[in-house]
């Protein structure tokens, strides 16, 4: 009976030793697996750090490019603003010139009407060229259709309305070049 008990204890202890051995082996395998996982994690961390460093360089480059683009955009916006101002100024000048041209056209139409009326209703006055601008006095006698038969330009018979037209033309265009 004692032997059996001993034998039973021995088997029980043997089972425990076997279980412990198995457990130790499993723990050793788990430890190796954990060690392998740790090494893999270290490798992954190094790779991630390299990737982060590379991405930081890319981000810095992108930031630099963005700053340059922003500066360029600001310059372009400034240029657009300046060009818009110039265009507005040019448009204003064009409008002024158009208004001046319209005013001159209206004056010329009035003068043309007055000239036509003066030819239709002649009322001649003796007019001395001394009151005409200097450029008018310097014209040769052959170019003056209203000069006297003597060929001089000192005294000219000229309709009153034509005198007005002449003086108005001198005011509008002092250079004496009329087309």
From TrEMBL:
Keyword field: Coiled coil
Domain of life: Eukaryota
UniProt protein name: Uncharacterized protein
Residue ranges the record marks as coiled coil: 83-114
Species classification: Eukaryota, Metazoa, Spiralia, Gnathifera, Rotifera
